């Protein structure tokens, strides 16, 4: 097959494929084509064919190959859009097209359908090489096309080749060039088909017959490249056509990047590098984002976050330039002058807290054992002046008025208090001649604070020495205690006794003298009622537990045996319970016994089962058992069953009848026995009903009672009452009694105190106590009324029934309520008839009395001069110092020495005895001794009464002593110090650190001179006693330097800093 024939067949195949594309593209948009299953975009080399263009193409094919094509059937099937077929890709290899020979004679039925048949007919002479031919003429092939001959038309140069006009043949494009198919384009974009196109920069041309492929972002290529290059590490490729650019300092690239990445904060990127070569900053260095190198963190700053700017140290913290850690707080005991330098040590007598910028003088009232500690002076007997390193103990006989002042010797009439270490005026009733105190009170007496008068300790009180007040004071006895008048001691009520009153040992109650009461402990106010389960017999002060099987109620003096048919598990009456069926008790049992096997049991006793009957343990009744032979009677083969008698019962499954037990009744022969109800009993067996409890005992009407299942009724016991036969006995309450068989309790006879469960109206051991009367309160259900004889009367006898039995208290005595005997009237008081207590009639104000058992105010004497006598005084009280006392004076503070005078250590009798206050002192109202003007002041006048009368010493003239009458002492300000008005000591106010002075006449710190350069001046610097100090080696000292190591010379430590400064 010749080459022309193959080309013809290719063109025919092109038309068929093109037509099929048009048929399947009915749903595609402009710029797309249909591949048989979906719409796809046209390739860059594809062209758009309009309907008219496709029609012209078919006419051309018909003219060349004399093809008869039914255009009216084909064209309507061509759609708006189609993509061209690159024929050269089909015809590149001639061998692959030989198979198309069969197409010449076959009907392309499957491709175009049965209605459209194309047949290939014979054709004319082959067209010559380099020309295109029609049926009538030939023309030379245009530029960019070729024809090897025998083809009707010229062929566009294939992709990847160019067509040289002179050769009129295809030549393959060189490497880096490309050529696209432009055949059959009636409207070409470019008319130049003579040369191959050079692959543009920024693209790659791996094949010669395809469009250039744009490089990816981060790649680049030069013109004529067949491949794209990845941008290398450490470089960026901002465009695809430019060569790689090295990353600048502070950035990096991991390759194939359009731009370099900024170096992260805390890292350095010093060279063109990738992420594996960046370096983290060392401790003490930092780097901001985009940095090429790490910078040292400057002194006074910290770089906790290496990627951020340095942060200045907070106040009180510092950091050296060489440090690799953060800011450090200045420790206690040091002063932080600069946040860039080490803190400086504080001198002795100074202190500082953590973070302080300067050292502080240890204040008065505190001491500083080291420069890091400030301790408050003890408030007791110590003092600390400013700058102290230890506290000083206040000397003996000295007073320390405050912890911040110097000790002073106590003046005459004063004493140094051991607890407060202050000079205190000697109180009344004490001797301060040797700076000590001595009480005047004796045992059985008491003395109020500030008084030298002693009083008899009253009944019901204790009078003991008080460490707080330094005198004997009276205090109420506690409950359960007692004290007699004048004893001064509270005594605990002894075991076995009760003490309802605190005022007399005679009013104690012996608990052992009463049945049902006891007293096991001390300090009882009343005897304890014997609890249930115990008994408290007469003559015993202890409670005794009932034996097992016995019981008692509250207040019992003996225990009772648990009755037969009952159990007493808890020893008290409330727990008494009847024995259950199958158990029994013969009496005195804590628990009922289980009825044994082979016996029947009532609640009180057990009975052996009769012949042919038996029982199991706990059954409580007997029943027939199955014998070897039948026990029922049989006559003429007829079994006869016997009917149970009245009062018997037979349960299901048993063979014999059983007698109804005691304490029960059997109304129905087919059910179990029923217990007798309360108020009834049954003392016989085989009964159908219970008996009612009796109402007579020896022909006397008595109350009986019974509980469930009783075989007898019980008479209500004495000391109890039973309202009816169904109720259990209840004990009589306080003030009542009962005989046995009573339905109620009766109040006791007047003059008696009936205890719980009393059995007699007039029990001999329950007489009303002395000092009281007892009677039944008929208005309150007859309850016991025990009343104390009113105050002003007494009762020495027991068993009294009325207030009329109380006797009037005689003159010279007093009688509190409930008194058994009158009591002697005490000194300072007098007692008329029916006096209630010893302070009703006291000697009036301005008088005193020393007589016992006084009967009128005539026993009271007028208070003499130099003394005062409050109401009820036993003896005159010496007038206190600072005051004067005239005759019949009731208060020691009525007449004080006026302001500007003092009394001295004497008891005065008139105003004229008050002495004028001397110079250097002041005397407020009621002064005992003059008070010295404090240091820093003076007083040139007499008769001054206020501290404000003490004048301030003038400027430049210190006054270091107490009680000065002039400031002219020949003293002047010390060198290195200044003295304002009211200065106490020449060295009280030193010039501050950084200053000095040699002048003794300056009055303020502003007059101190600034310390010169190259020297340091500590506090109080002067030429004579504390000269200026030269600057320490390695440090520099500008004007006003406070100490020689204050400013470190940085140029000696960092020489490079000096070179930089010299260069600048």
UniProtKB/TrEMBL annotation:
Coiled-coil regions listed: none
Domain of life: Eukaryota
Cited Gene3D superfamilies: Tumor Necrosis Factor Receptor, subunit A, domain 2
Signal sequence, renumbered to the chain: 1-24
Record carries keyword Signal: yes
Record's keyword annotation contains Transcription: no
Keywords linked to the UniProt accession: Signal
SMART domains recorded: Ephrin_rec_like (SM01411)
Record-given protein name: Cast multi-domain protein
Higher taxonomy: Eukaryota, Sar, Alveolata, Ciliophora, Intramacronucleata
UniProt gene name: Contig14707.g15666
């Amino acid at each position: 097959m010749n080459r022309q024939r193959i080309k013809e067949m290719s063109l025919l195949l092109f038309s068929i494929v093109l037509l099929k594309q048009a048929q399947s593209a009915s749903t595609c948009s402009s710029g797309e084509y249909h591949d048989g299953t979906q719409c796809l975009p046209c390739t860059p080399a594809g062209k758009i064919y309009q309907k008219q263009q496709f029609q012209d193409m078919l006419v051309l094919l018909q003219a060349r190959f004399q093809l008869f094509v039914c255009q009216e059937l084909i064209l309507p099937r061509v759609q708006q859009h189609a993509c061209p077929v690159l024929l050269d890709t089909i015809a590149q290899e001639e061998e692959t097209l030989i198979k198309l020979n069969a197409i010449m004679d076959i009907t392309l039925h499957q491709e175009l359908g049965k209605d459209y048949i194309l047949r290939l007919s014979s054709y004319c002479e082959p067209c010559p090489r380099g020309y295109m031919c029609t049926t009538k003429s030939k023309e030379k092939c245009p530029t960019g096309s070729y024809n090897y001959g025998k083809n009707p038309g010229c062929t566009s140069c294939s992709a990847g080749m160019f067509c040289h006009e002179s050769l009129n043949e295809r030549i393959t494009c060189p490497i880096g060039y490309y050529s696209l198919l432009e055949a059959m384009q009636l409207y070409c974009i470019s008319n130049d088909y003579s040369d191959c196109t050079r692959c543009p920069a920024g693209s790659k041309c791996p094949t010669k017959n395809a469009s250039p492929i744009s490089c990816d972002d981060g790649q680049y290529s030069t013109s004529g490249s067949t491949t794209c290059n990845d941008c290398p590490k450490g470089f960026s490729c901002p465009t695809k056509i430019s060569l790689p650019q090295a990353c600048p300092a502070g950035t990096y690239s991991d390759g194939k990047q359009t731009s370099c990445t900024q170096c992260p904060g805390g890292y350095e990127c010093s060279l063109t590098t990738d992420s594996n070569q960046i370096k983290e900053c060392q401790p003490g260095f930092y780097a901001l984002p985009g940095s090429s190198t790490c910078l040292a963190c400057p002194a006074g700053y910290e770089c906790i976050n290496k990627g951020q700017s340095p942060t200045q140290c907070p106040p009180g913290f510092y950091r050296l330039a060489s440090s690799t850690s953060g800011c450090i707080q200045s420790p206690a005991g040091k002063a932080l002058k600069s946040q860039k330098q080490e803190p400086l040590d504080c001198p002795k007598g100074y202190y500082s807290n953590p973070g302080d910028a300067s050292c502080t003088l240890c204040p008065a009232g505190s001491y500083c054992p080291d420069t890091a500690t400030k301790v408050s002076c003890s408030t007791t007997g110590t003092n600390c002046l400013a700058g102290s390193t230890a506290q000083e103990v206040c000397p003996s006989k000295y007073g320390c008025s405050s912890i911040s002042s110097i000790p002073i010797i106590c003046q005459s009439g004063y004493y140094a208090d051991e607890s407060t270490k202050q000079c205190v005026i000697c109180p009344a009733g004490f001797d301060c001649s040797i700076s000590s105190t001595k009480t005047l009170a004796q045992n059985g007496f008491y003395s109020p604070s500030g008084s030298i008068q002693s009083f008899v300790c009253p009944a019901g009180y204790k009078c003991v020495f008080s460490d707080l007040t330094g005198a004997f004071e009276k205090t109420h006895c506690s409950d359960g205690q007692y004290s007699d008048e004048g004893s001064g001691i509270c005594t605990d009520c002894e075991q076995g006794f009760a003490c309802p009153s605190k005022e007399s040992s005679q009013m104690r109650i012996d608990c052992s003298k009463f049945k049902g009461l006891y007293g096991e402990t001390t300090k009882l106010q009343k005897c304890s009622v014997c609890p249930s389960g115990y008994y408290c017999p007469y003559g015993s002060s202890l409670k005794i537990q009932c034996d097992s099987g016995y019981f008692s109620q509250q207040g019992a003096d003996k225990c009772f045996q648990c009755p037969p048919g009952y159990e007493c598990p808890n020893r008290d009456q409330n727990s008494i319970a009847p024995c259950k069926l199958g158990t029994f008790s013969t009496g005195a049992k804590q628990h009922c016994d289980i009825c044994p096997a082979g016996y029947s049991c009532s609640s009180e006793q057990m009975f052996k089962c009769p012949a042919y009957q038996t029982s199991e343990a706990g059954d409580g009744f007997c029943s027939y058992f199955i014998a070897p032979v039948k026990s029922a009677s049989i006559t003429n083969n007829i079994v006869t069953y016997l009917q149970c008698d009245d009062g018997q019962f037979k349960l299901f499954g048993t063979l014999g009848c059983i007698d109804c037990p005691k304490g029960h009744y059997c109304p129905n022969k087919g059910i179990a026995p029923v217990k007798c109800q309360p108020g009834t009993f049954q003392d016989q067996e085989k009964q159908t009903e219970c008996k009612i409890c009796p109402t007579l005992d020896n022909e006397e009407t008595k109350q009986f009672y019974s509980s469930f299942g009783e075989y007898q009724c019980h008479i209500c016991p004495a000391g109890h009452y039973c309202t009816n036969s169904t109720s259990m006995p209840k004990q009589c309450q306080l003030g009542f009694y009962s005989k046995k068989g009573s339905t109620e309790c009766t109040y006791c006879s007047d003059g008696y105190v009936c205890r719980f469960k009393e059995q007699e109206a007039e029990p001999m051991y329950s007489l009303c106590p002395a000092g009281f009367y007892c009677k039944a309160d008929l208005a309150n259900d007859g309850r016991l009324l025990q009343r104390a004889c009113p105050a002003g009367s007494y009762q020495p006898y027991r068993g009294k029934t009325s207030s009329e039995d109380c006797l009037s208290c005689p003159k010279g005595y007093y009688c509190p309520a409930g008194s058994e005997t009158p009591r002697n009237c005490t000194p300072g008081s007098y007692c008329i008839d029916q006096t209630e207590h010893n302070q009703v009639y006291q000697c009036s104000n301005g008088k005193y009395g020393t007589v016992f058992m006084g009967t009128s105010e005539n026993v009271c004497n007028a208070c003499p001069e130099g003394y005062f006598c409050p109401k009820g005084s036993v003896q005159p009280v010496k007038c206190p110092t600072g005051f004067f006392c005239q005759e019949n004076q009731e208060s020691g503070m009525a007449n004080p020495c006026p302001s500007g005078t003092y009394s001295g250590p004497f008891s005065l009798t008139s105003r004229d005895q008050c002495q004028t206050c001397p110079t250097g002192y002041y005397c407020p109202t009621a002064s005992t001794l003059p008070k010295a003007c404090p240091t820093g002041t003076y007083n040139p006048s007499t008769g001054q009464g206020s501290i404000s009368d003490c004048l301030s010493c003038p400027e430049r003239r210190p006054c270091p002593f107490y009680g000065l009458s002039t400031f002219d002492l020949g003293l002047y300000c010390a060198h290195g110090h200044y003295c304002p008005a009211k200065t106490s000591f020449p060295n009280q106010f030193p010039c501050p650190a950084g200053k000095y002075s040699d002048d003794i006449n300056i009055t303020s710190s502003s007059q101190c001179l600034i310390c010169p350069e190259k020297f340091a001046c500590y506090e109080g610097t002067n030429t004579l006693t504390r000269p200026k100090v030269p600057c320490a080696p390695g440090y520099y000292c500008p004007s006003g330097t406070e100490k020689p190591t204050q400013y470190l010379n940085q140029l000696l430590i960092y020489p490079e800093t000096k070179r930089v400064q010299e260069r600048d």
